[in-house]
Amino acid sequence: MEFKGSEIVRAGQGKVFDFLTDPLNFSKGIPDIQDVKVLGPGRFQVVAKLGISMIKTSFTINFDVSERVPPSHVKLRGHGLGANSAIDLEITVDLKGGAKETVLEWSSAATVSGMLASLGQRVLGGVADKLVKEVFGNLHKALESQGPEPVTG
């Protein structure tokens, strides 16, 4: 399943890049997050509840920042396990902008296997699309809630 979208954030490109590449900040976008652990440079682990309808389970997902081109590009890869299911994620974000506003063009690909996948790809696709949009919407809100960058000079 692949998804694409864009967000316009009222924050400078450098600030947005730094926010997205910080595991503690990035994890603010993940709904139903239960825990975050930084494992090393560019590596972190999250525990979050994921599922379809009433079937929800905790997944432990290990993320790696696989590509990092400051301040314009970042790619994360994640692999998670939970309740006889597995999920593989790839999230790519390209940033364009200046000192006050940044356009995030993002894409996400997810592969789910196991029990959750057996519930049907059509249902799973809709849930995954909603989840990805919620992640980027949450990141947008978290970034803008920090307020504008101070003007220096």
Describe the structure.
- By secondary structure, the protein is an alpha+beta fold.
- The protein has three helices and seven strands.
- It has a single domain (2-145), classed as Alpha-D-Glucose-1,6-Bisphosphate, Chain A, domain 4, CATH 3.30.530.
- It has helices at 13-20, 23-26, 121-145; strands at 2-9, 33-40, 43-52, 55-69, 73-82, 85-97, 102-114.
- A seven-stranded antiparallel sheet has the order 1-7-6-5-4-3-2, covered by helices on one side.
- A hairpin with a 2-residue loop joins β3 (43-52) and β4 (55-69).
Low-confidence stretches: none
> What is the count of distinct domains?
1
Spatial strand sequence of the major β-sheet: 1-7-6-5-4-3-2
What is the top-level CATH class?
Alpha Beta
- Cα radius of gyration in angstroms: 16 Å
Distance between the termini: 46 Å
Helix residue percentage:
10-25%
Topology as a string of helices (H) and strands (E):
EHHEEEEEEH
List the helices and strands and how they pair.
Blueprint: E1 2-9, H1 13-20, H2 23-26, E2 33-40, E3 43-52, E4 55-69, E5 73-82, E6 85-97, E7 102-114, H3 121-145
Antiparallel strand pairs: 1-7, 2-3, 3-4, 4-5, 5-6, 6-7
In a nutshell, what does this entry contain?
The chain has 153 residues and is α+β, with helices and mostly antiparallel strands. Helix content is 24%, strand content 50%.
